[in-house]
Design goal:
By secondary structure, the protein is mainly beta. Helix content is 3%, strand content 53%.
Length: 125
């Protein structure tokens, strides 16, 4: 029914940058929260960032403490696409990154109903 498609993952050296993209139909109109999660090997999936949306507008964003000041979430309503700009990447950022859409403004995964397939980000020298 609902498809979310991530792109932009890859291999980058520590200190480098990547930008992830996620496209979905009526992203900003249909959901109250859109954001990014990640899952590292052997670890549970964790919330990275989200944007609170109402009537097609973004009102605020939140970030996990581990990425605050390094990552930035943004979106383009006309393209129905969200982005995650990742700067000063660390090996600890290595994970599969997922975009998600739901109805609760939270970094908890149980607040989200729809998920993408994931894109791999590897930070290594």
């Amino acid at each position: 029914q609902v498809q979310l498609v991530e792109s932009g993952g890859g291999l980058v050296q520590p200190g480098g940058s990547l930008r992830l993209s996620c496209a979905a139909s009526e992203f900003f109109l249909n959901y109250n929260s859109i954001g990014w999660f990640r899952q590292a090997p052997g670890k549970e999936r964790e919330g990275v960032s989200y944007m609170a949306t109402t009537d097609g507008r973004t009102y605020y964003a939140d970030y996990a403490d581990s990425v605050r000041g390094r990552f930035a979430i943004s979106g383009d309503s006309a393209k129905s696409t969200i982005y995650l700009q990742m700067n000063n990447l660390k090996p600890e950022d290595t994970a599969v990154y997922y975009c998600a859409a739901g109805y609760r403004n939270t970094l908890r995964e149980d607040g989200y109903e729809y998920w993408g397939q994931g894109t791999q980000v590897t930070v290594s020298s």
